[in-house]
């Protein structure tokens, strides 16, 4: 799956569920945690969405800011998971 | 001066006199109530509040309420009774388990847990925990821990909808307790005393309409370390002072650290103070014996919790202000402050 598709789908999910406003700028590299877009419940919802949408599963040790703090990081991490589902 | 735990040292006697004066003014002059109801849990915060109210209003003007339910420990009830005895204040035990049962609190909890753990059986003990802030850059993802009847410990990440339902069902506990506290407050023409310390108040560690709802909150400005100092000077029983802060929210024993704060209160107090006073993370790091990057992580976590729980502090939002009431409210508060 193309990285661009993951970026688009994830951005759309975050907009609809956490921003509630199409006009707010949301850059690929914006910090989702630092900007307060995701709280702990939001993180749970995002993880569930990604696991269901892309058929991947995340280990506890993978649930770190480095993998989930921006749409760019999420897209990179999920792309890697799809390419290497065991890891 | 080098940043150290000393920074939180307060003149305890002055602090007690100042809080007692504020309680008198708030209860009698602003709220126009005769006394105060304090829900006493057996923990340090409610014990300190009960002792402060007693110092301020007199022992015949404070009612201690014990509100146990299915998941409350007997130790907590014993300690709460010990406190009321030591303060020589009236007390009432009102078990709230039947109200919670009728509201579906426990059944809804069980239903939520089964969403994450289908083999769960009613009666198994459980709790929710967060990873430690010092265990790397872990996201604050809550986990469900269950103890089976055979002693096996099972841990699962919860789906979001299950987690939200479990929290929502559990919040009945704080809301029912507040409802009962207000019953007694209304009956006696008393005010309800809220018992959060600064960490809890700042970080949104309360239930809106539950323990977050009260007429006055006399220790919300005190760091937890300072609450212990005040408690010691007020003669709060040692067993309460020595006890690890717990939540008593879920059926498995659980510290506040693993449920919400993810850090021992002594360290979190210093981090919160450091953040509030623009102390560089590296200085706080030396005081709590941690790398600076850990303190920076805590600073970020404090700011995130503060931001995401801010709506809990808001009163009902109005489409337009009602200026007549606003001006009367401010003059009432100002009169009380002068009194």
List keywords for this structure.
heterodimer; A: 87 residues; mainly alpha; 0% strand; B: 339 residues; alpha/beta; Rossmann fold; 2 domains; 4-stranded parallel beta sheet; 3-stranded antiparallel beta sheet; 7 strands; 52% helix
Q: What is the strand content of chain A?
A: under 5%
Supply the number of structural domains of chain B.
Answer: 2
How many angstroms separate the termini of chain A? 17 Å
CATH class of the largest domain in chain B: Alpha Beta
Whole-number count of domains of chain A: 1
The CATH topology of the largest domain in chain B, please? Rossmann fold
- State the largest interface: A-B, 17 and 19 residues
Radius of gyration of chain A: 12 Å
Describe what you observe in this structure.
- The complex is a heterodimer of chains A (87) and B (339).
- By secondary structure, chain A is an all-alpha fold.
- Chain A is built from four helices and no strands.
- The longest helix of chain A is centred in the N-terminal third of the chain and has 17 residues, at 3-19.
- Chain B has 339 residues and is an alpha/beta fold.
- In chain B, α2 links the parallel β1 (35-39) and β2.
Task: Give the gist of this structure.
By secondary structure, chain A is an all-alpha fold. Chain A has helices at 3-19, 40-54, 65-68, 71-83.
């Amino acid at each position: 799956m193309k990285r661009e598709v993951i970026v688009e789908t994830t951005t759309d999910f975050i907009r609809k569920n956490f921003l509630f406003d199409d006009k707010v700028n949301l850059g690929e590299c914006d910090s989702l945690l630092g900007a307060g877009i995701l709280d702990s419940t939001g993180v749970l919802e995002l993880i569930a969405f990604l696991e269901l949408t892309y058929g991947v599963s995340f280990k506890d040790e993978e649930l770190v800011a480095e993998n989930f703090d921006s749409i760019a990081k999420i897209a990179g991490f999920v792309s890697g998971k799809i390419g290497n589902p065991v890891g | 001066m080098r940043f150290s735990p000393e920074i939180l040292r307060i003149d305890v006697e002055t602090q007690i006199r100042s809080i007692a004066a504020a309680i008198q003014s708030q209860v009698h002059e602003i709220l126009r109530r005769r006394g105060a109801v304090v829900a006493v849990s057996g923990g340090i915060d409610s014990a300190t509040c009960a002792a402060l109210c007693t110092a301020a209003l007199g022992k015949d003007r404070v009612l201690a309420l014990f509100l146990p339910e299915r998941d409350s420990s007997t130790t907590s009830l014993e300690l709460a009774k010990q406190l009321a005895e030591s303060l020589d204040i009236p007390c009432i035990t009102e078990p709230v388990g039947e109200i919670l049962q009728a509201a579906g609190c426990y059944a809804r909890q069980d239903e939520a847990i089964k969403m994450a753990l289908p083999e769960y059986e009613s009666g198994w003990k459980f709790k929710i925990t967060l990873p430690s802030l010092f265990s790397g850059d872990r996201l604050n993802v809550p986990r469900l821990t269950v103890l089976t009847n055979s002693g096996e410990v099972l841990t699962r990440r919860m789906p979001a909808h299950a987690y939200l339902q479990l929290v929502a069902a559990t919040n009945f506990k704080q809301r029912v307790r507040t409802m009962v506290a207000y019953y007694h407050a209304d009956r006696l023409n008393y005010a309800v005393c809220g018992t959060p310390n600064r960490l809890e108040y700042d970080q949104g560690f309360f239930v809106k309409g539950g323990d977050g709802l009260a007429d006055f909150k006399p220790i919300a400005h005190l760091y937890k370390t300072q609450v212990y100092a005040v408690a010691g000077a007020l003669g709060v029983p040692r067993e309460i002072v020595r006890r690890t802060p717990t939540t008593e929210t879920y059926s498995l024993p659980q510290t506040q650290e693993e449920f919400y704060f993810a850090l021992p209160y002594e360290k979190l107090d210093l981090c919160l103070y450091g953040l509030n006073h623009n102390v560089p993370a590296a200085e706080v790091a030396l005081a709590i014996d941690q790398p600076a990057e850990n303190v920076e992580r805590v600073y970020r976590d404090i700011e995130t919790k503060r931001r995401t729980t801010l709506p809990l502090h808001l009163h009902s939002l109005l489409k337009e202000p009602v200026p007549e009431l606003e001006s009367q409210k401010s003059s009432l508060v100002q009169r009380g402050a002068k009194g």
